[in-house]
Amino acid sequence: MRKRSNVNRNDRLNGELQKEIYEIISRRLKNPLVTEMFSILRVDCSRDLSYAKVYVSIYSTDVQKKNTTFDAIKADAKKIRFELAKVIRARTVPELNFVLDDSMEYGDKMDKLFKMINEGEKSD
User: Fold this and answer.
1) What gap in Å lies between CA 52 and CA 46, rounded to an integer?
2) CA dihedral in degrees (88, 89, 91, 96; nearest 10)?
3) What are phi and psi of 32, to 5 degrees?
4) pLDDT per 10-residue tile (average), the chain, 124 residues
5) By the 8 A CB rule, do 38 and 73 touch?
6) Would you list the DSSP string of 35-67?
7) In whole angstroms, what is the distance from residue 99 CA to residue 102 CA?
8) Structure pTM?
9) What single-letter DSSP state applies at residue 94?
10) What is the Cα–Cα distance from 40 to 110, expressed in whole angstroms?
């Protein structure tokens, strides 16, 4: 039974981190290099809560702006962690590792391809 409560606690912490990291980046830090719209898709904390993988999706058609925004977010990792320590009620705040998640773009690309295939079949 103890293992189940740890999973629930970890899930709650992941959700709280996801929400707070977004708030910190978008409202408190105000980094001028973060110019594109972004979303924190998911946070995965390690069991001992020392590390957290933060999946970020950036919505932009300009690859250079997208990369600049992601690099700015990665560079602010220590500042974000410091701000998290002010709002998260945990003994330790995990070290943040940001990962660019392109799954939304990949899904959009696949949807367009399937739509093209369907339209091709209908015209035959």
Assistant:
1) 6
2) -20
3) -65, -15
4) 64 92 93 92 91 93 92 96 89 92 80 85 65
5) yes
6) -SEEEEEEEEE-TTSSEEEEEEEEE-S-HHHHH
7) 10
8) 0.80
9) P
10) 22
